[in-house]
Write a structure and sequence with these properties.
The two termini are 38 Å apart. The chain has 11 helices and 11 strands. It has helices spanning 14-34, 38-58, 62-82, 84-96, 98-101, 111-124, 140-143, 155-161, 202-213, 242-252, 256-268, and strands at 3-7, 10-13, 129-134, 147-152, 172-176, 179-185, 194-195, 198-199, 216-221, 228-232, 235-237. By secondary structure, the protein is α+β, with helices and mostly antiparallel strands.
Length: 272
């Protein structure tokens, strides 16, 4: 092992630096997750005790090191008992990461299934809906016109948003990856007012309009007829059956997997 430099009695190698960087990164990410909670203060105290314990062992202060190790062991147990909610939250976040999902079988329904079931339940009740699914570049300007949600895609949440008496049911819901970014968003209207002699409503014109100007898929449920349509690349596909809708969504939303990976790495590296 190649020695890089010495600090007093400590010899530092390349592997030592790598080890320190990994530990520092893990500690930083843990702190970011629990930042703003009472657990954050306890966590910092635990880190301080661990650091002092390391120095005591390096300096061969046996009695002081034994005392700090005893405090550390008790502190870790107390931390686990007192802060179970924060630990559960941490494990939940880790469990949702794509890297872990590669090795774990996922029984959850995919995005196409959720959207198909949601669309047909809304259709049966004749509740109008407009959902914009971002495929590549985001549409931040559109998101900022609505109410920020930032919640995982969920059928019940979407049905609640588009319930006629909900204050969020007007406008569009924006979904990026598997996250509902915002609701009640304002979209640009298409200049097309009718297709094949059939007049387009405001939802259809808005869904078509955003698909003409951005790389998105618009899912539209008509409040008047309950009909379901997709707007893709400036083209409107109407009268979709359940199987056809699911097939079209599956085919056209494959790119959202790449978006999910990009979001994961952005979060991992602390980007906003």
């Amino acid at each position: 092992m190649t020695e890089l430099f010495k600090i007093g009695f400590l010899t530092v190698s390349l592997f030592d630096l790598l080890d320190i960087m990994i530990v520092s990164f893990v500690i930083y990410k843990l702190y970011r997750i629990i930042k703003g909670t009472i657990a954050a203060q306890i966590f910092l105290g635990l880190i301080l005790v661990l650091f002092l314990s390391f120095l005591a062992q390096a300096a061969e202060f046996k009695a002081f090191g034994w005392m700090l190790k005893l405090i550390t062991d008790i502190w870790v147990i107390a931390f686990i008992i007192l802060f179970q909610p924060e630990i559960r939250r941490l494990l939940l976040i880790l469990g949702r990461n794509p890297l872990l999902r590669m090795f774990v079988k996922n029984d959850e329904k995919n995005l196409a299934d959720i959207l198909t079931e949601t669309a047909f339940e809304l259709s049966q009740n004749q509740h109008g809906a407009l959902i914009v699914l971002v495929r590549t570049a985001g549409i931040r300007g559109i998101v900022e016109t609505g109410e920020v949600i930032n919640a995982r895609v969920n059928k019940n949440l979407l049905r609640s948003i588009f319930f006629p008496r909900s204050p969020l049911h007007d406008g569009a819901v924006i979904i990026k990856g598997d996250i509902i970014e915002a609701a009640r968003c304002t979209l640009p209207l298409s200049t097309e007012t009718d297709i094949n002699g059939e007049t387009l409503g405001m939802r259809h014109r808005a869904g078509l309009g955003i698909s003409e100007t951005a790389d998105v898929v618009s899912l539209i449920v008509s409040e008047e007829t309950g009909g379901i349509a997709l707007a893709i690349d400036g083209k409107l596909i109407k009268g979709l059956s359940k199987e056809t809708l699911k097939s079209q969504l599956t085919k056209n939303l494959k790119i959202t997997k790449d978006i999910s990976w990009k979001s994961f790495f952005d979060q991992t590296l602390g980007k906003k």
